[in-house]
Amino acid sequence: LKQVFNKDKTFRPKRKFEPGTQRFELHKRAQASLNSGVDLKAAVQLPSGEDQNDWVAVHVVDFFNRINLIYGTICEFCTERTCPVMSGGPRYEYRWQDDLKYKKPTALPAPQYMNLLMDWIEMQINNEDIFPTSVGKCKEEVL
After folding, report:
1. pLDDT-derived band of residue 9, with 50, 70 and 90 as boundaries?
2. I want to staple 112 with a disulfide (CB 3.0 to 4.6 A). Which of 39, 91, 108, 141 is the partner?
3. For the segment 126-139, what is each residue's pLDDT rounded down to a tens digit?
4. What is the DSSP secondary structure assignment for residue 104, as one 8-state letter?
């Protein structure tokens, strides 16, 4: 058990950000939100009397919107030249398949993959059969 909690093997030193830099400011904001006292479990808990499918749908759309904003801030730095592969580090490569144009998993540059992914998610969110705009009519088998 001592080896599991050995500080030299399991913990990495905190990353330091140079004061006055944009990363330092972002780090301060992130720390403030983490230390704001928000109970994340309570924040995502289904409110009493609400439909679970409606609750999930609202959060899926909100999550998509936030990811879209984040992606929008980095997309100019990730070009087909600088990001020729959609990967999750050196060991994982993501391939696109949609059974329309890409019938088999296909390696794509990261920007192309992300554009296809964001378009696909938006199509799902805008599909009334999956995310109806009328409250209380969500398809259970999809979610």
Report:
1. very low
2. 108
3. 888 887 776 544 55
4. S
Contact of 143 with 53, CB cutoff 8 Å:
yes
Helices 110-126 and 52-74 sit at what angle, rounded to 10 degrees? 150
What is the distance between the alpha carbons of residues 77 and 44, in angstroms, rounded to a whole number? 33
CA 10 to CA 12: how far, in whole Å? 7
Q: 75: annotated binding-site residue?
A: no
54-100: per-residue pLDDT in tens? 888 887 888 888 888 888 888 889 999 999 999 998 899 999 999 89
Structure tokens at 94: 């993501």
78 is in an annotated binding site: yes
Indicate the helix (H) or strand (E) that contains 96.
strand 95-96
Number of CB atoms found within 10 A of residue 102's CB:
13
